[in-house]
């Protein structure tokens, strides 16, 4: 730089003009050096690094390249050059150094943030990330680093020690508690969710209070993102999963069976003892033949042993159509290919109500897929609704408009026939 000054002075120019020309030339030279360094860094060095990473076939190499970690770091080179040449301008040296250091700090913060995000992306390639997500922790580290970086930038610009600014944070702790309330609650909730393995990415959770019913697609510091089955997105506060109750269907999905728990309401007026004709009919049913033969032998031996007169159906033991129907459903479920035979399967009676006698089917399908589950459940009840009349049973249903219309028409026809006979 002194050489430039001497060269201009040797040209016998005005000293004031020499001063301005030297400053302009110095700025142009420094700018040219910065441009050349930036060009070499991005066009040559980064391309070499990219080629090395690509050829190495490292799984996480592409993630680092996608996050542009090295490209963001390259922005620091011009700032270092400007800082190195700040002594060329003694009058403005302090200002130039402060601005250059500020830029270096900002570039470093962007680089660290990109590096942390790349680390999180690499971690998500492992299966353990679904069990122990770290995105919330990465966001906490980002907040801490950004806060420290902001303090360093301010202290550099005002020319004071960062410790002075840090000492003032204690007085502003209450303000920080208010500003970062959600982040702090989210951090605590995230630690509890992870430590207790309460929620993972991919879990089906249900939280009616927030209208959430779907799969967890993301867990972050402050929110848990749920994609509902109607493809809408519900954002849940992380701490809400700790403070409120929710349903996690992971246990059902991992068990290999999904529960069917639905009742068939039987009209109690249709329940009766089985007649000889009914028994002869039931014994020809594939799922009932063995049951009828065994029960008839058992009942006959019991009645004979106790000398019971069966002329009155109230005496002794006898088969009922509801009992035979329950046995039929039980055997039907045992032979159904859509029912998981390694899990609980039973048919039971619940307490009688104004809607009739509930006959509950409690079983598990052998698939947890929603469509398959609904198909199996519908097939079972389609069959049971159709076969119930074969046992002399009626499924309860409140009278509909058609029922009332038929009653009125029957009453009217009887009244007309009575008038005509009169």
UniProtKB/TrEMBL annotation:
SUPFAM superfamilies, sorted: Sm-like ribonucleoproteins
Subcellular localization(s) per the UniProt record: Cell inner membrane
Gene3D superfamilies: 2.30.30.60
Hydrolase keyword on record: no
InterPro entries: LSM_dom_sf, MS_channel_C, MscS_beta-dom_sf, MscS_channel_2nd, YbdG
Biological process according to GO: cellular response to osmotic stress
Top-level lineage group: Bacteria
Family to which this protein belongs: Belongs to the MscS (TC 1.A.23) family.
Protein name: Mechanosensing system component YbdG
